[in-house]
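JOB MANIFEST
job_type = single_chain_structure
chain_count = 1
residues = 264
[input]
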Amino acid sequence: MTMGTALVTGASSGIGAIYADRLAQRGYDLLLVARNAERLSGLAARISGDHGVRVETQPADLRTAEGIAGVTRHLMNGGGVTMLVNSAGVAPRGSFLGSELADLSELVDLNVVALHDLTAAAAQTFATRRNGAIINISSAVALMPEHFNASYVASKAFVLGMTQALAADLSACNVRLQAVLPGLTRTEIFDRAGISLNAIDPEMLMEAAELVDAALAGFDLGETVTIPSLPDVGLWEEMERARTTLAPHLSLRTAAARFGLRAG
């Protein structure tokens, strides 16, 4: 018996490839999605040989509507997909102001549009079936927007917000949601963005395997949001309490007295 099939995007390298290996260890069959068909095929053969699970591949460019549609069909056709891991993503090639608009749009297409559509397809399918799990890779920069490219920060904040909202929506449907917020992680994404790892403090750089292992441990603990490097989960819980404390004050009939609109 297996745990069903885990569909992993961005699976040809880095975080996605490690998720594929770790989920196979847990007994999941796999459907691996990425652009590089040759690398997918090699990974599939290795994982199948190592863990004895069924591994299928689907080369797809998730920056395109056609690529997204091909993957959503797997999620909505009533097949055996029981977990979606949205690991596909791209980093910016420089600062927001120094970037080409086409590059920023491509980043949003992959980090936001593709993730949204795949998550929506999986959420609706899993909710109807009343079983399943969705793991979305966000980023720690979603919590510190002042420190990075605005489009990338916004894309990862979208991932976090969508995951938290769906976790509430699907809490009664036996569907698990998790957002993973890595810090700097040693993957090929830096090479693609033209960033040298030598410029990064090694104390801030986590290995991808350790990141995935910590994220899956957080999943096992039932965390909706997992920050792999956070030593004290109470810091996150404190921030969440502060956020929810704001809720009763965010939509009222009158503007706050501090603006002086009704003085006198």
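[summary]
DSSP finds eight helices and nine strands in the chain.
The chain has a mean pLDDT of 93.
exit_status = 0
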